[in-house]
Amino acid sequence: xxxxxxxxxxxxxxxxxxxxxxxxxxxxxxxxxxxxxxxxxxxxxxxxxxxxxxxxxxxxxxxxxxxxxxxxxxxxxxxxxxxxxxxxxxxxxxxxxxxxxxxxxxxxxxxxxxxxxxxxxxxxxxxxxxxxxxxxxxxxxxxxxxxxxxxxxxxxxxxxxxxxxxxxxxxxxxxxxxxxxxxxxxxxxxxxxxxxxxxxxxxxxxxxxxxxxxxxxxxxx
Length: 221
Prior knowledge:
The radius of gyration is 17 Å and the shape is globular. The chain has two domains: 2-79, Glutaredoxin; 91-217, Glutathione S-transferase Yfyf (Class Pi), Chain A, domain 2. β1, α1 and β2 form a beta-alpha-beta unit. The chain is of the alpha+beta class. Strands 2-1-3-4 form a four-stranded mixed sheet. It is built from eleven helices and four strands, in the order βαβαββααααααααα. The longest helix has 27 residues, at 91-117.
């Protein structure tokens, strides 16, 4: 692996956004320092590195901070010469990849959070919307091996951390992800065959336990 001087990643173990950065760094074959953050007691370094949003992940390279996971992936793809390119070379394909990664950011996590936070009619609306989101993403995947075709890349890296959250979403939502989007689940299993993914994602049951602890903390039953 290439050692990139002065590169560190600040994140939290369960953050899908931090996990995509770890997968991207592994795909680029880059060594870096990982620093686990306690989001209930954020470090001075995190607050200094990301004073605007005060969130993880943050990549620090030669003393300079890069915030937001998709921008971090874009950055490491440009500055790290090792490994396979994360983004396609064709400008149109690059634009499409960034669109679908942005779609994941704007839709999946936010709607999935509502699945375990809300009750009653609002919960049912979140469930309906989440299933629609899954179907839109699955339609984009189609019959391809990965979102970019035969090559594992930017969109796959942006989306695959949510695969570890599917159990939580379907358990809290009362539906089967595989029944609603079988091709998407098959894609997730293919991604798990990659070392960068299998060694990064956590057991879905551990993610669910984390969410249950949050529900208990916030009095959500």
